[in-house]
Design a protein that fits this description.
Number of helices: 15
CATH superfamily of the largest domain: Ubiquitin Conjugating Enzyme
CATH topology of the largest domain: Ubiquitin Conjugating Enzyme
Distance between the termini: 122 Å
Organism: Cimex lectularius (Bed bug)
GO biological process, one term: protein ubiquitination
CATH architecture of the largest domain: Roll
Pathway: Protein modification; protein ubiquitination
Largest sheet: 4 strands, antiparallel
Catalytic activity: [E2 ubiquitin-conjugating enzyme]-S-ubiquitinyl-L-cysteine + [acceptor protein]-L-lysine = [E2 ubiquitin-conjugating enzyme]-L-cysteine + [acceptor protein]-N(6)-ubiquitinyl-L-lysine
Strand content: 5-15%
Keywords: Metal-binding, Repeat, Transferase, Ubl conjugation pathway, Zinc, Zinc-finger
Shape: elongated
Number of strands: 22
């Protein structure tokens, strides 16, 4: 095949790869003599990385990932490619060991042998993206335990067993000598000296022949698993911003840059809907949690998401409310009762006195008044009601706590007084003249107060004419017209005489019955005025 044909194939291959892959994945030289391919490996949904946490009992930690840093394949065309030779290439990958990269080089060479004489880069790139993990036997798990241990050894940090033995030797030496403060550098050097003197602490190192086409890029100031986790977060964020999502509230399609995603549920909502959602919760004081709006979802909004959505001014209000709500849950925190202060005050458990650090006001933590020593607390009505409700609805432990603070006798006294006042309020009415509490047992609605002696209507509480009190019930313009016995159960009263059809002259209040003789006893039974008035 002529040189011109090879050049044409090379240019065509570059053009095809440029049209298939994004600029983030593929770069070519201006003269079409080579380029670089960044293979972002396609990961299964259950892919995890595994590493050992040497600070927590040598336990294995699994972290799910959606993205890994790309495998970099740098290539250069020889003059007789693709007719005779394969492209010259170099490969590098942070998360693959030298052994696995050697296998990758062998596979790329094998693919060339199987497809000799044709363009090969697309086959290589697809293998790196789609089939690499399965080929290396790591389809859903990347085990970094050995690589992590190697990193620690290179940095002078031993395994847990080695470090424990070395520390025991150090403790023995330190106990025999005068203690002195040592730097972390000196301690590491001491461990290193002890380890070299103990044959059991010898570290075996395995050397592998590295293919010359493998480029190693060491990490600086971080461990591999931390770098992979950080890369995954950044890549996921970038991918989210570029993707179109349907808001689960308004059902409109919007780009990720205008949306917020909850973790770990991955529910997505547009910022406009979430802004209204957050504002309502903040205005109602529901700041202890900002859950995902999805029903029964337990995911929580992150602080930076809330601030980004509602703005700095409202976020400051939210932050203050959250702080106060958190302080309210702390049993050793109270607040200065002065209206112009309100500063949080730390108090000692079991101590009744507290001192505000801001205004220096000394107060009782129970009644919030000036500290009164052994004197009983003078409580406001609202506080008494709250104490009674808590006492009556509380369990034995709650009752014991309240009795210890306020006294059992005092609490029972509050309850009895409250019940008496409630009974009076429910079963009596106030005299419209002297405001005395009046109870009506039965009888008509013309009442006489035994304290100030005035007549009044039980229905509307109007003061009646002392000379003609019944005119109020005979006046057609009155709201109580013909209501003298309103509410009186006549049929069930055995003492009520059978002659109830009567009338009276509104001018002189003389009663006229249908030729029925009336005695003073009958009148007393009908009107029963005096026995039916009770002054409390």
């Amino acid at each position: 095949m002529s040189r011109n044909v090879n050049l044409q194939d090379q240019e065509d291959e570059i053009c095809v790869l440029s049209s298939i892959y994004t600029k983030e994945e593929f770069e070519s030289k201006d003269d079409y003599s080579g380029g670089q391919f960044y293979a972002f490996v396609t990961l299964p949904h259950d892919f995890v990385i595994t590493y050992k946490n040497y600070g927590e009992g040598n336990e294995s930690v699994k972290v799910p990932l959606s993205h890994l840093p790309p495998i970099t394949l740098t290539f250069k065309y020889p003059a007789n490619y693709p007719s005779e030779e394969k492209p010259e290439y170099q490969i590098s990958c942070l998360w693959l060991s030298i052994t696995k990269l050697n296998k990758v080089c062998e596979k790329l060479d094998k693919l060339w042998e199987e497809n000799r004489g044709t363009v090969i880069l697309y086959i290589w790139t697809q293998f790196l993206k789609e089939d690499l993990l399965e080929y290396l036997g790591m389809s859903n798990n990347l085990d970094l335990c050995r690589q992590y241990s190697s990193e620690l050894r290179r940095k002078g940090v031993f395994s847990i067993k080695q470090k424990r033995n070395a520390n025991q030797n150090l403790d023995t030496i330190n106990n025999q000598q005068t203690p002195r403060q040592t730097t972390s550098f000196e301690r590491k050097e001491s461990i290193k000296d002890l380890s070299t003197s103990n044959k059991e602490l010898h570290i075996n190192r395995y050397f592998v022949n590295k293919d010359s086409r493998i480029i190693t890029v060491p990490l600086v100031d971080t461990h591999l698993h931390k770098y992979l986790i950080s890369f995954n977060e950044d890549k996921s964020r970038t991918e989210f911003l570029r993707t179109l999502y349907t808001c689960d509230i308004c059902y409109e399609d919007k780009l990720g840059e205008k949306c917020i995603q909850f973790k770990p549920c991955n529910h997505v909502y547009c910022k406009q809907c979430l802004q209204q959602y957050f504002e309502v919760r903040i205005s109602e004081g529901q700041v202890n949690s900002m859950p995902c709006p999805q029903s029964k979802c337990k995911s929580e909004a992150q602080q930076h998401q809330i601030k980004e959505t509602v703005g700095s001014k409202l976020y400051l209000k939210y932050d203050n409310l959250l702080l106060n709500a958190t302080l309210d849950t702390m049993v050793d925190i109270t607040y200065c009762p002065r209206s112009f202060c309100g500063c949080p005050v730390m108090r000692d458990t079991g101590e009744k006195m507290a001192t505000c650090p801001k205004c220096e006001y000394v107060f009782c933590v129970h009644c919030k008044m000036t500290y009164h020593g052994v004197e009983k607390c003078r409580l406001k009505a609202e506080k008494i009601i709250a104490i009674m409700d808590e006492y009556e609805q509380g369990d034995e432990q709650t009752k014991f706590r309240l009795e210890k603070i306020y006294g059992k006798k005092e609490i029972l006294s509050y309850i009895n007084i409250a019940k008496s006042e409630n009974w009076i309020k429910t079963n009596s009415k106030l005299c419209p003249n002297c405001k005395a509490a009046i109870e009506k047992m039965d009888g008509c609605n013309k009442m006489a107060c035994t304290k100030c002696k005035i007549f009044f209507c039980w229905i509307c509480l109007s003061i009646l004419d002392p000379e003609k009190p019944y005119r109020h019930f005979d006046d057609t313009q009155s709201a109580c017209f013909n209501q003298l016995f309103q509410g009186v159960d006549i049929e069930d009263n055995p003492d009520m005489p059978p002659f109830m059809n009567f009338a009276w002259d509104a001018e002189d209040d003389d009663f006229f019955f249908d030729d029925m003789p009336m005695t003073e006893e009958d009148l007393a039974i009908i009107f029963n005025v005096v026995p039916n008035l009770l002054l409390l």
